[in-house]
Amino acid sequence: GENVEQHPSTLSVQEGDSAVIKCTYSDSASNYFPWYKQELGKGPQLIIDIRSNVGEKKDQRIAVTLNKTAKHFSLHITETQPEDSAVYFCAASNVGSGGGADGLTFGKGTHLIIQP
Amino acid sequence: NAGVTQTPKFQVLKTGQSMTLQCAQDMNHEYMSWYRQDPGMGLRLIHYSVGAGITDQGEVPNGYNVSRSTTEDFPLRLLSAAPSQTSVYFCASSMTYSNQPQHFGDGTRLSIL
User: Fold this and answer.
1) Residues of chain A contacting residue B92, judged by C-beta atoms under 8 Å apart
2) pLDDT at B99 (0 to 100)
3) DSSP3 helix / strand / coil % (chain A, rounded to 5)
4) pLDDT, average across residues B86-92
5) Mean pLDDT of the B94-100 span
6) Cβ-based contacts of A45 with chain B (< 8 Å)
7) Which of A17, A31, B28, B48 is the least crowded, having the fewest Cβ atoms under 10 Å away?
8) How confident is the model at residue B2, as a pLDDT?
9) What is the pLDDT of residue B83?
10) Backbone φ and ψ of B43, nearest 5°
C-alpha cells in the first residue's frame, strides 16, 4: 500500500517569514495530493490540493508543488501570520488506479509554530 | 448547512463494552469514511462507503463494524472495546470518492479503560 512520509515534525518560523513542509509518497499510481490544517480540538480542514497532471497550484499565500518523478510534494506558506499556527497534514490518494482501498493515506503531521 | 456532525464528542468506556459512534452529513455526499488519529501516527482509514448499501475496509478495520443504510448516516460500531481503540475518531465525506475534497467532522474522543 501507499506510504507517505512528512518532514519536519515541528517547524518554528518568525512571523512574516515563509514555511515549507515536504512529503514523499511511495505509490507511483497516486494521483491526488491534498493538504489539511488541523487546529486544536477540531477536525482537519482542506487548505489546498493538487492533482498529478499539475506541477504547481497557488491560492493567495499558500502554494503546493508536485514532482511526480521524485514522488514528492511540498506546501509553501508565505508571509506567515499567527493564525497559521496549527498542525498540517499531507495526504495521497490513488483511487481510480485499480488497486487498494478508496481513502487517503496521511503523513504524520507537522506542528507549525509562528513566533511573534 | 451543518456539514459533518459527529456524536458524542467525548466518551469513556470500559474494556468489553460496545458502543456506536454516530456520523451524519447534510451535503448529499455519496462517499463517507472513518479515520482514527493517534499521537504521532497521523490519520488512518478504518472503513469507507461509496454509497448507501456499500461499505469496504480500510487500513485498520479490525474491531470495527460499519453500515450505510442511508446517504446521510454512517455509524461506526465497536463490538467489544479494547484499550488499543483509545483514540480520536473522525468521520469525513465527499461528493463521490477520496480524490475529492474531504469534509471532516470535529471528532469523537474515545477512552477505553
Assistant:
1) 43
2) 86
3) 5, 55, 45
4) 98
5) 88
6) 104
7) B28
8) 81
9) 97
10) -105, 140
